[in-house]
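Re: export button greyed out
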Amino acid sequence: MGSVYSLTLRQLSGRWRLLIMTVLAAMPVLIAVLTLASVRTPSVVEFEITVLGAMLSGSIAPLVVLAIAAPAFANELEDRTLANLTLSPLSRRQIAVPKLLAAVTVAAPFIAASAFLTSHVAFLGDATATAAVTVSAVVGVALYASAFVWLGLVSTQAIGIGLLYIVLWEGFFAGFVSGARVLSIRYYAIALMHGLDERRFASTSHMSLGVAIVVAVVVFGGFLFLTIRRLRRMDVP
Amino acid sequence: MTGMATPVIRVDGVSRWFGSVVAVSEISFDVGPGITGLLGPNGAGKTTLLRMMTGLAGTSSGTITVFGQPVRDNPPLYRRLGVMSEHETVYGFMKGREFVRMMARLRGVTDLEGAVDRAIELVDLADAQHRPMETYSRGMRQRMRLAATLVHDPEILILDEPLNGADPRQRVHFQHLLRQLGAEGRTILLSSHILEEVEALADTVLLIVNGKLAASGGFRAIRAALNQRPYHVRVLCDAPRRLAAAVVELASVDAVHVDPDGAIVVLSRNVLDLQLELPRLAQSASISLRRVEPLDDSLESVFGYLVER
Amino acid sequence: MSAEAAGHPAPPPGRAGTVFDIGYRNYTGVREGRGRSRLAVFKDGLRIAMGLGRGGRAKFLPWLFIGVLASIGLIMALIAGAVERLGGPGQAQRMNLPSHGDLYGIASIILFVFAALVAPELLCRDRREGTINLYLVRPLTGGDYVASRWAAFLVVMLFAAWLPQVILLLGLALGDPLPATYLRTHWLDVPKFLLAGVAIAAYATTLAMFTASFTTRRAYASVFLVGLFVITAPFTIGLASEMEGPAGRWISMFNLTNIPVHVNDVIFGEVSELTEEAPAGKLPQAVLVAWYFAWTLAPGVLLWWRYRRLTP
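Workaround output, generated via the alternate export path:
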């Protein structure tokens, strides 16, 4: 599994890609710094909605993970190199798990660092709030990665479908139709953040911490299971 | 070929269709140790068949077993199986040696560096092994892929168009290597368009036409089995028309025609009798035979006939 | 001319060669030039963008987006029609419901995502698979190739942009008790939305293709482009709200989603819903238009320059 993991790390870590992710991850941090430096300090709710919600978890995190995770299998299928892995004694689980872990390994540090620095600055070093934001961001990355790795395996239009999900479903529908949040990874992560620091992020409009954890485990495990199942049944090009 | 006592690979009633297109239709055969050539025109279903035999694709019906085990979804089997597909499936950013080492590691090879050295030596790419494969020529990529296929010393080799991009020297080297591996008792299944090479290498031939198995076995035996097609034998002599007039009387001869260059071509379904009768006839007619050669005693002619009929 | 007369030694006796005429004929028809080649690349670009002549999967995404855009126009028309029916003629205008001037603002992100997904299909695949060399060995330069592809995608974007406007116009006209009168009184909306459509289509086409020219992987081009549009919006809004005055206005100008919508506002003479709160809207119209041209022409020129240098 180590070979597949290190191979995937190399495949997903292009120089320009890492540079772009660094720039994207730095944006919310810059906003947080400027917000603190300004005269009009926004409330927690305002900060959560615009910076954490709209920017970090609404656009930067899912797009970064989509760009990293979907190509984990999609590029192998396009280049017809997946057979190098499937024609080996590795079980399909031993191929899918390191692919997913590698995608999370590449994407998570950027999002985690962005979430940590943003919340640390915005909440004036409040450790609980910072931990809540960071942990929920990392969990969000893992959930998106599991979904997009699977999507890259099952569809040649993975990026298009992923973008539709992020922009239309999570960015549009789930914002207006609260029921749609039941099927939104973004809102699972936000619910987790609320649950981890109820003191600062108290709200009744999100699912409870316990439910959020269970849902996260089910989503992550579910997409991983689907990926392994697909690898077993598909014709490898 | 079929009904082998303990086949290494058994293909039993295998079909594969894609929507309404039947790519492979009810094919059955066994493959044992030695070199088996898989032939067929473009679109015959060779690659589809090979992909099913290597587990990359499933069958629509029928079964394929390797060492008695199903090949599909059976990863441990790949420790004993080496597969080289027709696509140039390499990681361009990797150096050649890295690629072969990774393939060796994936297959659980214990003496990693030793196995990699041997495999790269076999394909004569020691000088280029530390370069990224995106800088390789096509032939070099093929050879490094072959090294990756051989690195874990597999008992079975399935090779789809392995000589694509190889220059003449490399072809000779590769043929020698394959003969050596076949002589060691490995089972090698080789798909190729290059009939002369398959003819030179393969002990047995599987000929696929339109998704069906058209013939299997040694190509001479296949030729002999084609009863309905007469053999063409070209005869050069000093009196072609006189010989032609005499030969046409023989019971073993179906037809005779005279070429513009003076050679006669005899069509016969019974070359054994012709072989005996022709020299006697020439002697009795005082005609000197200069050359007698069969024109369709080649894999190419068998292939051509079976594909066209 | 015999072999000897040509200075080559005569072939040995019995080795003379003859070519028999078995019916092969050279092509003696008209050989069309560069214009025809450009047209062929243009038509091929249209087919690639819309998935024409390909399977269902190639058509799914582009036509899904076209459908969504058409739905926006239809929904707006239906809402206006319902309001008119319930509240009486003119009620929609009194309530200041979104109309032609607002449609591009509402649909902008969908248009940009559409461009981000489809534009890389026209450029990336040819470079990745090496088929661009097949174009370049024809009477076609790299500049011809990219200009033809750009023109093809512009046509597609214009169709995507104008379709919901036409549906809205028809819906509003048919919802009026006197459709002919409605069209006579609102005929100016037509050239306005056509021109605004050209602005947004040209902008999206050029930026999308410029981005796609930097990578051979369609996925990376698409995600980067969407990221550029989707992320600059909250980023610049957040920053601009902290920095009031000219600094805030200029930062707001870097909201890439709003750039063509400001031009739309200039054309319609009124601020749309999307740009209502944008500080950049307070800048002079000439600045907004010049900014638009900078963000459309500069990438366009760079795109052409990158491809112009290509050789087979």
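Chains C and B do not touch (no CB pair under 8 Å). The button fix ships in the next patch.
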